Amino acid sequence: MAESMKGLKRSHRCAELSDRQVGEEVTVMGWVQKNRNKGGLVFTDIRDRSGIIQAVFDETDEALREKAASLRSEYVVAVRGKVARRSGAVNTNLATGEIEILPSELRILSESETPPFPIEENSRTKEELRLKYRYLDLRRPDLQRNLILRSRLATLTRQFLAREGFLEIETPVLIKSTPEGARDYLVPSRVHPGNFYALPQSPQLFKQLLMCAGYDRYFQVAKCFRDEDLRADRQPEFTQIDMELSFVDVEDVLDVNERLLASLFEEILGEKVELPIPRMTWQEAMDRYGSDKPDIRFDMELTDVTETVKDTSFAVFRGAVEGGGTVRGLNVKGQAEMPRKKIDKLVDFAKGYGAKGLAYLGILPDGTIKSSFSKFLTEEEMQQLIGAMEGEPGDLLLFAADETRIVWDVLGALRLELARQLELADKDVFRFLWVTEFPLLEWNPDQKRYTAMHHPFTMPYEEDLEKLDSDPGSVRAKAYDIVLNGNEIGGGSVRIFDPSIQSRMFEVLGFTKEQAQEQFGFLLTAFRYGVPPHAGLAYGLDRLAMLMAKEESIRDVIAFPKVKDASDLMTEAPGRVETSQLEELGLAIRTTEQPL
Description:
- This protein is 29% helix and 23% strand.
- By secondary structure, it is an alpha+beta fold.
- α4 crosses α16 and α10 (340-351) crosses α12 (404-422).
- The radius of gyration is 30 Å and the shape is globular.
């Protein structure tokens, strides 16, 4: 039967105790992690979010010791007693390993059934079961450390931005649906039958309106929603550290964010971020790494050998060049003797990213060559290719030949896969990179038109404006991403504030004036009343916390995450609702048998 805690007040969290409290009477409350009955002694490990403290019940009070012997894992208890130095061996694995509590009082505040899995660090229990009982999973010390880190991350961000003159302003969650790239989550309106709100994919339009309204430095820890297919670093609902600044250009935004990142990593992890953070244009990133979010913790860059192989008799290389594509390679140092079976798996991996195949060339330690295409090249051509790749005995050279975009995708992904297999990336190192000067537009072959790479309000470089009509694909945007260890953790841009440039942008994107007004009318109207130059950036808080905690999935830094099909295993959401609720909204569920 549960006992009351009346008359008791917790004096310390468990791991807040140290040898400084030896001799003091304290009261701790928490969960029983482990209970060991050693005949004349009962050792009870009590756990709360701070850690564990051991309580030792001896024969001094037989009734108290017998009560302690009845404890089971996950019982909630309150213990009052004196702190003493451990009479037994010191536990170096615990922060409180040199001390223990000698209780004078024990109250069982709540009993527990046997949990469906052990509450322990680095649990091997299947994730589906842990997410079904997430409230138990969240008791694990590693997850608690992650959520404490995430809390500090948000708190310190708020404090830093407040010191920099930013105002925290909330923006609406029920908004008008506007095209932002992913599907909107829609919310039907009861008051306006047949009409829908959308949940925001980002606060983009509202933060620009705040700049129009004169709040020249805004930020928000904002909830955002996207109805898209999930993976390890995506959730249908996620959190952004969102900001917008007026009367600024690219340098101003990068400066304040570099200092923010340096402050966060030093205060939370004790890691010093060297400033300024290195920069690389989008074009350079793609050419060198095949990715707009390159992991620069290791080498192995792409090498363009198009000019070297364009006249060879190897049809795969020559055909790619004649078709307007490129041939590029990776030099995998020291892997010339990689088994053929392993190379075949790399070929299959490359095909998963659009490659038709993967050509390889191994320079064995004795200088002989093993290659999938050597018979198509002369000795001179082979040596020229090896020279272009800076190949040495022991190196494995891998080549992709196709449209440039496909070659980038294939070799960029292959580079990361090889780094994973060969353990080239130091998990204890944090390497930041700014990627700048993204293309303003990208061609959508399905829609047969250009679409905005970021969003329709991204400012082009002024010197590229003349190409907006003649060569829109070459126009650079004043856009920038911040990359950490191969992950995009944030991105932003300078916004268009000149109505004439905005009109040209809409034209290139295929919007009529009427369509632009219908979709973005409230913003365009606001811009007619004096709009300052402005720019912004947003971080994925979940992803940033994941990397700082050195986890593989953002689910490990979110208290109640969804699984891959966007469902919640614990609450069983989404679920059906009463017919009366649907009728209030003017909705009905159509079965698969019913026609549209």
